[in-house]
Design brief:
- The chain is an all-alpha fold and 100 residues long.
- The chain has three helices and no strands.
- The longest helix has 37 residues, at 63-99.
């Protein structure tokens, strides 16, 4: 049995960056319904350091960083939904006015 089609192959080795770690930690917390306090737990931070030993404490996301990231992502989502609603509204108004 071949498993070639089951998994996506990595195009290139993923570079370590503070933003990529922050995104991954936020995804873990939000999608797995974890507490925000997890980010400040020493054992969790040790796991992150074990994955990238050259990381510094400043590169590890804090609860504040995670809360800010989630807040900003939510604001972007709401603005996008608002823009979509406005576009749909104007399309329907224009279509209705052409009928009359």
């Amino acid at each position: 049995m071949k498993i070639d089609g089951l998994f996506q192959k990595a195009k290139k080795k993923q570079e370590f960056s503070r933003d990529s770690v922050l995104h991954a930690v936020v995804e873990f917390i939000v999608c797995d319904d974890q507490s925000l306090v997890v980010a400040n737990k020493t054992t969790f931070q040790n796991c992150l350091v074990a994955m990238h030993p050259a990381s510094t404490t400043a590169e590890l996301p804090s609860t504040h960083d995670i809360t800010t990231y989630i807040h900003n992502a939510f604001i972007k989502l709401i603005e996008s939904v608002k823009a979509d609603i406005q576009v749909d509204f104007f399309i329907h108004v224009n279509a209705f006015s052409n009928v009359i």
